[in-house]
Design goal:
The chain is α/β, with parallel strands linked by helices. It has four helices and 19 strands. The protein has one domain: Hexapeptide repeat proteins (UDP N-Acetylglucosamine Acyltransferase, domain 1), CATH 2.160.10.
């Protein structure tokens, strides 16, 4: 941006920079997402194709055959990309202040949480109410067991397996199986 141009808090958020989450534009986006989530979660009995249509209203991209079983929760939705035949089971949470990409054929168990939202480690920026985000990328044909948590900035490679209840704090290589808290490779 040129000199003298001030970036909005939303632009800072999307860029992964420190931002103020109480900003009016950000709050309006979250309010719109809450209204959309109420509609989506109320459509639990609707056919998958109808729910996929609702997903396409709010998410960045939704591949053919993608399914999210309600209830589902997210911050914005417009930062979430689902590949073809992605499946998220009941009660998944995605904090998508920056992009969250989920590759084709990935299967995600119930109550999995994916966090792109993060907080400064230094006390002063936290005192000022500042936050930031780090994108999360989950590859193709990944299996994530129920109750797992994927932390900000993590990349999960294609064909990886994450055990149920695991806390994933670091990148997971393609084809690896990890489990535990923190998640570590299984031999």
């Amino acid at each position: 941006m040129g000199s003298g141009t001030t970036r909005s808090e939303k632009q800072k958020m999307l860029a992964g920079e420190l931002y103020r989450p109480g900003d009016a534009e950000i709050q309006a986006d979250q309010a719109a997402t809450k209204a959309w989530l109420a509609r989506y979660n109320a459509a639990a009995a609707a056919p998958p194709a109808e729910r996929r249509g609702l997903l396409r209203e709010r998410l960045a991209a939704v591949g053919d055959g993608a399914v999210i079983r309600p209830p589902f929760f997210c911050d914005f939705g417009f930062n979430i990309t689902l590949g073809r035949d992605v499946f998220l089971n009941f009660n998944c949470v995605i904090l998508d202040v920056t992009p969250v990409e989920i590759g084709d054929g990935t299967q995600i168990g119930p109550a999995v949480q994916i966090y792109a939202a993060d907080h400064p480690r230094e006390a002063e920026p936290r005192r000022q109410g500042l936050e930031f985000g780090r994108p999360v990328r989950i590859g193709r044909n990944v299996w994530i067991g129920g109750g797992a948590v994927i932390l900000p900035g993590v990349v999960v490679g294609d064909d990886a397996v994450i055990g149920a209840g695991s806390i994933v704090t670091r990148d997971v290589p393609a084809g690896a199986t990890v489990a535990g808290n923190p998640a570590r490779p299984l031999r």
